[in-house]
Design a protein that fits this description.
Bound molecules: manganese (II) ion
Number of domains: 1
Number of strands: 9
Strand content: 35-45%
Number of helices: 4
Largest sheet: 8 strands, antiparallel, barrel
């Protein structure tokens, strides 16, 4: 996909979001950004092939393997975006408040190269985050032939927790400790 769509959607003289560039060196970071836009959602991003592959998760991630969370794939974001916590001004694309809800690194499970798995519609990875840990699967649902709707599912391991609601238990930024309201004020 690359960054063309990301950059076309945004006016970088008005938004503090990074314009960014595609990275040549491999990396294995991930970030989950809590985004209070028109609707609150969580943006899950994995560094693959020099960009952050991105999914919007309306209900956020869960540590309960029984909770299959809809994850709608959106445009690739630049790797620099993982450091973005702040306010997107009114009228701009994605206007609202962005929090770094969780961040860390991942290791592929199964196939070494997640970009091959992405094309096939299933990837498995181990997250080493501040909040999210353990194995996860992202699988494409092919509902009505579209290639945007995936499910994020926690695998059964020592970090799985039945009935957990980690987004409510740990609502604040893993980066600054701030709440959404505090990030919005300090613009
Ligand atoms: Mn978003």
């Amino acid at each position: 996909m690359g960054l063309e769509e990301y950059q076309k959607k945004r006016n970088f003289s008005k938004t503090p979001e990074p314009k960014g560039t595609e990275k040549l060196e491999p990396g294995n970071s991930f970030v989950v950004q809590k985004h209070k836009a028109k609707r609150l959602h969580y943006d899950f991003r994995l560094e693959i092939d020099g960009v952050l592959k991105s999914w919007a998760i309306p209900k956020g991630p869960s540590l309960d393997p029984a909770e299959r969370r809809l994850a709608v794939q959106v445009e690739d974001h630049p790797v620099e975006y993982k450091n973005f916590e702040g306010v997107i001004p009114p009228g701009e694309y994605g206007a609202g408040t962005v929090m770094i809800w969780d961040f860390g690194t991942y290791e592929p499970l199964g196939e070494k190269n997640l970009s091959d798995g992405l094309k096939k519609g299933e990837i498995r990875f181990w997250l080493n985050g501040k909040k999210l840990k353990g194995g996860f699967t992202l699988v494409l649902t092919r509902y009505r032939g579209n290639r945007k709707n995936w499910l994020l599912i926690k695998e059964k391991d020592e970090y799985a927790r039945k009935g957990s609601n980690i987004t409510e238990e740990q609502p604040n930024s893993a980066y600054s400790g701030k709440s959404i309201e505090e990030i919005a004020i300090l613009k």
